[in-house]
Amino acid sequence: MSVDALAAVTADDLWGITGAVWESVVRVPVARVDHAFNLDAALTGAVTIRGGWAGLVTFTCPRPAAEDVTRRMLALPDGAPVAADDVADAIGEITNVVGGQVKALCPGDNRLGLPSVATGLVATGTLPVCRLGVEWEGHVARVAVWRSATEVTDPEGRKDR
Amino acid sequence: MRALVIDDSRAMRRIVGGILVDLGFEVVHAGDGSEALGVLEAGPLPDLACVDWNMPVMDGLTFVTRVRDRREWRDVTLMMVTTESEQSQIVRALAAGAHEYLIKPFTPDALRDKLLLLGLLPEPAEVRA
Question: What is the ipTM of this complex?
Answer without folding.
Answer: 0.86
